[in-house]
Write a structure and sequence with these properties.
Blueprint (H helix, E strand, L loop, with lengths): L9 E3 L2 E2 L12 H11 L13 E2 L15 E4 L12 H18 L2 E6 L2 H11 L11 E6 L8 H5 L7 E5 L9 H5 L5 E5 L11 H14 L2 E6 L27
Parallel strand pairs: 1-4, 4-5, 5-6, 6-7, 7-8, 8-9
Antiparallel strand pairs: 2-3
């Protein structure tokens, strides 16, 4: 369905449900949105948010979209959650490969479990003789410096476009080891929003912006965050400028 997330056009959820793994998950929008969808009797949300549901009937939906678009994969789950079988992940990637070739879509896979992404690729890469599609971007989330080593794990995935979502940004984070070494091609930063939002200091975002610019890596400021207003769109600025850069695809 069309997305209000600033850095994508569409969401595609062949899996629903997730579980928390780190502080960035504490106020995840999925846990708030899921009960509303359940109350509206939306298919795929009949259980509880922590139950992982595979929805094979949704697998081929991207092939029905004729206009090329950026697609956030499993915005209501995690492609590489340990309860998503490797074979189902393979089916998702097969559809992504086909839809990228036929429709020109770009798929954005964001996971907090990059180690499982590496394990899946090592086991299934022989199914993809052309290698990892340039139209499938893969990223991981880093909310504090403690979780920055996820990027070292992500570097083992041979995707042409690897990215990081520094959202919610909960403290100063130094990404220079992964920016300067070429691990990252895109950086997204955002403050937390919602009734229990933790504040983001603009200087934290400014530091990530500066380091990204110095490394020549695309930088995208999604939102400043806030309890009553996420301060996105035109309000999301650093030093009076919006930052909506996208990585250069080959």
């Amino acid at each position: 369905m069309p997305s209000a997330i600033e850095w994508t056009d569409e969401t595609w959820n062949p899996v629903t449900g997730c579980t928390r793994v780190s502080p960035g998950c504490d106020h995840c929008y999925m846990f708030a949105l899921y009960p509303r969808l359940k109350a509206m009797a939306v298919p795929g949300y009949e259980a509880v948010p922590s139950e992982i549901r595979l929805l094979p009937e949704r697998l081929r939906i991207p092939l029905t979209w004729k206009k090329p678009r950026r697609v956030f994969v499993n915005s209501m789950s995690d492609v590489f959650h340990p309860r998503v079988p490797f074979d189902f992940i393979y089916q998702m990637f097969s559809v992504m490969d086909e839809a990228a070739e036929q429709r020109g879509h770009v798929f954005q896979v964001l996971t907090k479990r990059p180690g499982r992404a590496v394990a899946w690729w090592e086991q299934y890469k022989h199914h993809f003789p052309q290698g990892w599609s340039p139209n499938i971007w893969i990223g991981t989330s880093v909310e504090t410096q403690k979780y920055a080593p996820r990027l070292t794990v992500l570097s083992r995935v041979p995707a042409p476009i690897r990215f990081v979502s520094v959202e919610p940004l909960l403290e100063p984070v130094d990404l220079r080891p992964w920016l300067d070494s070429g691990v990252l091609q895109w950086v997204i930063v955002g403050g937390e929003s919602g009734p229990r939002a933790r504040a983001m200091d603009l200087d934290w975002a400014r530091q990530v912006r500066d380091h990204s610019v110095q490394a020549g890596v695309a930088f995208f400021l999604k939102q400043l965050g806030g309890v009553r207003n996420k301060r996105g769109g035109e309000a999301a600025t650093i030093d009076g400028r919006q930052w909506h850069q996208l990585p250069v695809t080959r």
